[in-house]
Amino acid sequence: MDFDGRFLAWVALSALIIATPGPDTALIIRNALAGGPRASTLSALGVAVGILTWAAAVTLGVGVLLERSSTAFTILKLAGAAYLFYLGAKSLLSNANGQDAGQPSTALTLGDRSAWGQGLVSNLLNPKTGAFFVTVMPQFTIPGDPAIRLVLMVAAFEVMLLVWLIAYGHVVSRLGRSGLGSRVRTFMTRLTGVVLIGLGARLAFERR
């Protein structure tokens, strides 16, 4: 398959979408501060699996249902907003409790399965991700395109996503554990919690 202008345009747009801060990025920051680079990497892998699930759903026609049914969209949207609220509140409360008691933050005990699951659930409960693959991806395809082209488009998105989120998580984790001190790390964790809650509120009131 030739990497023509359509494919390169898809790669450029995907890179822009991936680099734009959103719920996935906020979650990576939260878990990088809470559990270090391993936790943020596992969360990034969970997000990547979520993307694959959305891509498969679009292929099977499930994404079209989400796009056409306002009820399905609203239910998924509110579930995603509630989950972002939960993660944001948990980040704020666990950090505050740990610091007030003079003990290590309970957020630091983030396990591998929890980190991976949070990335997966956060992505799957974001209807805008499904809408992106339903409405945007078809603009870069034409009837008769081979299946390998679609596979490579999704693969390119996945590779860029993983590189960006994993690198982002490692940088944030290093900054959080540098000489900036625990107070700065606490501030960053609380700020991320506020951002997650804000993103949840935006998602709850967002229209298609």
Quick structural gist:
With 208 residues, the chain is mainly α. It has helices at 5-19, 23-60, 62-68, 70-100, 112-124, 127-135, 147-176, 182-205.
What can you see in these coordinates?
With 208 residues, this protein is an all-alpha fold. The chain has one domain (23-205). The chain is built from eight helices and no strands. It has helices at residues 5-19, 23-60, 62-68, 70-100, 112-124, 127-135, 147-176, 182-205. α2 (23-60) crosses α5 (112-124), α2 crosses α6 (127-135) and α4 (70-100) packs antiparallel against α8. The radius of gyration is 18 Å and the shape is globular. The model is unreliable at 95-108 (pLDDT under 50).
Which consecutive residue ranges, at least 5 long each, have pLDDT under 50? 95-108
Radius of gyration: 18 Å
Number of strands: 0
Tally of alpha and pi helices:
8
> Can you tell me the number of structural domains?
1
Strand content: under 5%
Span between N and C termini? 34 Å
Q: Mean pLDDT, rounded to whole units?
A: 79
Order of helices and strands: HHHHHHHH
Overall 3D shape: globular
Main sheet: strands, sense, barrel: none
Structural class: mainly alpha
The residue fraction in helices comes out at: over 70%
Oligomer: single chain
Give keywords.
208 residues; mainly alpha; 80% helix; globular
Give the arrangement of secondary structure elements.
Elements: H1 5-19, H2 23-60, H3 62-68, H4 70-100, H5 112-124, H6 127-135, H7 147-176, H8 182-205
Helix pairs in contact: 1-7, 2-5, 2-6, 2-7, 2-8, 3-4, 3-6, 4-8
